[in-house]
Amino acid sequence: MSQKAVEQIMGRMLLDREFRQLMATDMPQALAGYDLTDAEREGFKTLDLKDFHQSVSGLDERISKGQGWN
User: Fold this and answer.
1) Which of 26, 36, 51, 59 is most buried per CB count within 10 Å?
2) To 10 degrees, what angle do helices 49-66 and 17-25 make?
3) How many domains does the chain have?
């Protein structure tokens, strides 16, 4: 199911810095193996990955600072 694949990719982009980098530098390789429609693949191409990476990097820092808090 392609919606599930889109959700998996978005989640991975949020949590995996190396995957975000691969999406920016070699998107076809990053998306290989995911069951996506052509329209979904095109949709990923329209993402502003630089802006996404900057936003998520800030989130990464906040999460890292919060590790160990209980």
Assistant:
1) 36
2) 170
3) 1
Residue 8, domain extent = 2-66
Type of residue at 29: Q
Token match 């820092």: residue?
61
Q: Any idea what the Cα angle at residue 10 is, between residues 63 and 17, rounded to 5°?
A: 50
Buried b (16+ CB within 10 A) or exposed e, 18-53: eebebbeeeeeebbeebebeeebeeebeeeebeebb
pLDDT for 27: 95
Listed residue (18, 14, 8) closest to 40, CA to CA: 8
Quick one: pLDDT at residue 52?
73
pLDDT of residue 69 exceeding 50, the answer is no
